[in-house]
Amino acid sequence: MYWDIQRPLSYGKLFNFIVGPRGGGKTYGAKKFGLDNFLKKDSQFFYVRRYDTELEKINQFWDDIAERYPDHELTVNSGKFLCDKEICGHYNALTKARVLKSTPFPKVTDIIFDEFIIDKKGYQRYLTDEVVSFLEMYSTIARLRDVRVWFLSNALTMTNPYFLYWDINLPYGKDIAVKDDILIQMVEDNEYKEAASSTRFGKLISGTAYGNYAIENQFFRDDKSFLGKKPPSAYYQFTLAYKERKFGIWLDRNMSCYYVSNDIEPNSHFNYSVTLDDHKPNLLLLKTLKPYMLDAFIKAYSIGAVRFEDINIKNLCQEIIKLTL
């Protein structure tokens, strides 16, 4: 009834993004896989969380799985997972990736990054340049070896640094998609859905946004309203640069509506960077001016006259608008 790592494993990809419903067994399946590999092959795994605070209860790591291994002593001690007093795994926070640089991990074959997607309405935030921080940690652990990574998360939002960095899209018409050496799985398990839906809590949240997220594995924070493709009659207004991406702002006077797209006009004379980090040659910094075209765009947004060509564009543009108000 719970997530089985063997199916995505069979694709042989290096980076594996697993997005599944709450309580669907992602972490359980990954730690079981790591422990079984240690018992069979003497290999180790590396468990990653973003912040130290997420590791405060790491001593309970084995609690849900220990009963399946009654003949083995499973413990946690000072950055290490132990099985019968031998090291079977390691753990660390991404914020402390730098302290690992001089430490070898020759037996590590798999990295488990738990809860890699953050709820944008929660109290936590992504690290500055987080993907690079993770890649630095990966390089330290792998040392030119092919070490698999299991990125695990609930379905919170498509707009996260990892999906943006590698331009990862959802599988279309299936639950698994691959791109180069990357796999994404949107976990589909009808048996789990039926079991979760039949509980008293499942019945209570049935049909709600939270129920769609917790049971149906739909992205909780991604509102698909105001999505739409620009018509052929739309013409170019200006370019916005934000988080190493460029968005084209188009206007269709027939519909009195703006459209935000990944399509940009390279010869446009109106190109703006939202933050200092985005400021490059031929981009005007918005903090130093507020062009009338941007004012018109924001006013159109306030009355619902803006459409976005996909959910990532919408989520990022909402961040832009908050920064420019």
Structure characterization notes:
The protein folds into two domains: 6-214, P-loop containing nucleotide triphosphate hydrolases (Rossmann fold, 3-Layer(aba) Sandwich); 235-324, no CATH class. A nine-stranded mixed beta sheet has the order 3-4-5-2-6-7-1-9-8, sandwiched between helices. A six-stranded mixed beta sheet has the order 14-13-10-11-12-15, covered by helices on one side. The chain has helices at 6-9, 26-41, 130-142, 161-165, 190-197, 200-205, 209-214, 292-302, 311-324; strands at 15-19, 44-49, 74-77, 80-83, 86-93, 108-114, 148-153, 176-179, 182-186, 235-242, 245-252, 257-261, 271-273, 284-285, 306-308. The chain has 325 residues and is an alpha/beta fold. The model has no long low-confidence stretch (mean pLDDT 90). The protein has nine helices and 15 strands. The termini are far apart. Helix 3 (130-142) links the parallel strand 6 (108-114) and strand 7.
N-to-C SSE series?
Answer: HEHEEEEEHEHEEHHHEEEEEHEH
CATH C-level class of the largest domain is: Alpha Beta
The tally of domains stands at 2
CATH superfamily membership of the largest domain: P-loop containing nucleotide triphosphate hydrolases
Look up the CATH topology of the largest domain: Rossmann fold
CATH architecture level-2 label of the largest domain: 3-Layer(aba) Sandwich
Q: In total, how many beta strands?
A: 15
Poorly predicted runs are none
Largest sheet descriptor? 9 strands, mixed
Strand content: 15-25%
**What integer value in Å does the Rg equal?**
23 Å
Cα-to-Cα separation, first versus last residue: 48 Å
Strand order of the largest sheet: 3-4-5-2-6-7-1-9-8
Structural class: alpha/beta
Helix content: 25-40%
Q: What's the shape?
A: globular
Number of helices: 9
Rounded mean pLDDT score = 90
